[in-house]
Amino acid sequence: MNSPIMIACAHGTSNTQGAAEVNALRAAIAGLRPGLDVREAYVDVQQPDLVDVVAGLPEGEAAVVVPLLLSVGYHVKVDIARAVKSRPGSAAAAPLGPDPRLAALLDQRLREAGVTDNDVIVLAAAGSSNPNAAVSVEELLGQLRELRSNRMVAAYGASAKPSVPDAVAMLREELEGGAGAGESAGAVDVGGRVVIASYLLAPGFFHDQLAKAGADIVTEPLLPSPVLAEIALDRYDAAVAKAREAAAHTPAETTAQAPQEAPAEPAANAQQGGFFKAVRRFVTKYFPR
Q: How much is the mean pLDDT over the chain?
C-alpha cells in the first residue's frame, strides 16, 4: 500500500540561507521516513506554488499538506485550506506549532545565547491577520513559561500587536524602573537585559527585522533542528489517522449520495477539506481500516 504523498508547504523566502534551511528540513523528513514521497510547495515568494503542486498530483494519488508554519494563521486557514478543497483526496495537517517540543527548542536557543533568569524576554512571532495565530503563540508562550522563570511577553513582526519594537521598549522601561515597573512587571531584577526569542523557522525578512528592534540579544531561529522534522511527521501521521477514522465511519452509500453529511473536522485540529468529500472507494484504497 502506498502512503499518501506529503506536500511539505512552507511560507517561502528570498533569503538564501532561509530557503536552504527549509529544504534541509524536507530532506530530514524524508530521511526519517524512507519511501515517503515528500514534495516541495510554498504559499508565497517562492515556487512551486501550493495550488500548482496540488493540481499536478498524479491522478488517483492521495496527499496530505503539512504546513511548515508555526501557527494557525491566514495561510493555513485560507491558502492551504483552499488548495486542499480544490482536489478530492487531499487533506491538510495541523501546523508545527504550538508544541511543547518547540518550547523546549526555544529554551535551548535562549540557553545557547547565554540568557539568565534576570533577563526579560520578548517571544517574537511573525504575526498574522488571523486571530487564531495569536492564540497559538500565547499557548506556546505558556509552554515556555513552564520551562523558564523569566518575565516574558509575546510580540509580532506584523499584523498583530504588540509589535516587537513596542514590546522591547516596554520591557526596557520596566528594567529601568520607569512606567509599568513594579508589581505589574513580574518582579524583574534591575540590571537584566532585553532578549528577543526568535519564534521563527529560519532566517529571512522577519528575523532580519528583529535585529533592529532595540534588544540586547536576539536568539537564532528554530532551524536547524531535528525536532522540526519529527513534529512534521507527527502532524502527517495524525492527518492520515483522522482520514482512516473518517473512512471507517462513513458508509459508501452515504458518501456517494450525500457528501454534505460527511463528518466535519474541527478547524482547530486539521482542515480535511475535500478529503472527506472524496468517494468511498478512493478513501478505502489509500486509507484502509
A: 85
CA-CA distances (angstroms) from residue 146 to 95, 117, 140, 152, 194? Answer: 22, 13, 10, 11, 20
CA torsion sign, 173 to 177 to 181 to 187?
A: positive
Name the helix (H) or strand (E) containing 156.
Answer: strand 152-156
- Residue found by looking up cell 465511519 in the block: 249
Instruction: Single out the residue of 84, 2, 35 nearest to residue 287, CA to CA.
Output: 2
The whole-number average pLDDT for the span 148-174 is 95
Q: Nearest-5° angle of CA 111, CA 95, CA 241?
A: 120
CA angle in degrees (0–180, nearest 5) for 265-63-264: 10
Pairing of strands 194-198, 152-156: unpaired
- Amino acid present at 40: E
Helix (H), strand (E), coil (C) string for 7-65: EEEECCCCCHHHHHHHHHHHHHHHHHCCCCCEEEEECCCCCCEHHHHHHCCCCCCCEEE
Say what the pTM is.
0.82
Alpha helices in the chain (DSSP H): 16-32, 50-55, 74, 81-85, 100-112, 131-145, 164-175, 205-210, 226-248, 252-257, 280-286
- Paired with 245 in beta bridges are none
Residue 288 reports pLDDT greater than 70: no
Report which residue type is found at 170: M
Amino acid at 14: S
Asked if omega into 67 is within 30° of 0 (cis), the reply is no
